[in-house]
Amino acid sequence: MISVVIPAKDEAGNIGPLMDEICQSLQGLTEFEILVVDDGSSDGTAQEVIDTANKNGCLAKAIVHRHSTGQSTAVCTGVRHASGKYIVTLDADGQNDPADIPAMLKLTERITAEHFCIAGYRKNRKDTAWKRFQSRFANKVRDAMLHDGVPDTGCGLKLFPRETFLRLPYFNHMHRYIPALVRRLGGEVFISVVNHRDRGVGVSKYTAWNRMWVGIVDILGVMWLIRRAKIAEIERVDTNQS
Asked: Which residues, including other chains, have CB under 8 Å from residue 25's CB and lie 6 or more apart?
């Protein structure tokens, strides 16, 4: 069983078609569920989730936050309500392609690490030249400071074990630093090149300005966490045999 977790805010018109694509990509491949966390939407996002699930017959849940709390909290809510061994996250705007999920699942067959993250890499982004420049610059700064080895931490399409995520420290915007936090656990990070598409309807909730300042603070915070991490290697566990 895998759980597809989608944080969504005001994504009516995008979330239904995205759920249909997820079902088309995963039906017959593996057991799965879709969890859409409606993060305080003012449109019909949650109702569209239920209507779509009734139409296509896929197992889906709509979890509604009364007030908007941000993408990281929405992801945490979804993971905590998930039943799957593996979690797949993707953005609700339709720019991530569910057709890339099977290749990521295939990659798990070769992974032996207990903790890992498969991070999507939008090699050919469908964004303006200015936005691509901002992302390249931000990724270079982040990698230079955190050494997470991920060329595109902003890609919402990721796969990781549920138990791994539950061991990560929670803070606002932590969803952008999952690979670095997995490495902090002693885990491994893998890269999967994925498709990138134009947004369906609506507009992005993010701008360069509202990302830049919090990004600096976040990176410094993650550096602090990494430097203070201690991983114990257990040699054996002795028990008293009666």
From this structure: 98, 99, 101, 102
Q: Among the residues of the chain, which ranges form H helices?
A: 15-26, 45-56, 71-80, 101-108, 129-146, 162-166, 178-184, 208-227
Q: Pairing state of beta strands 2-8 and 32-39?
A: parallel
User: What is this structure's pTM?
Assistant: 0.83
CB-side neighbour CA atoms (13 Å) of 182:
28
Distance between CA 76 and CA 238 in Å, rounded?
Answer: 35
- In tens, the pLDDT along 22-65 reads 999 999 999 999 999 999 999 999 999 999 999 999 999 999 99
Between CA 70 and CA 77 the distance in angstroms is 11
Between the CA atoms of 27, 33, 37 and 41, what dihedral angle is there, to the nearest 10 degrees? 40
The gap from C-alpha 2 to its chain's centroid, in whole angstroms, comes to 13
For the chain, the average pLDDT equals 86
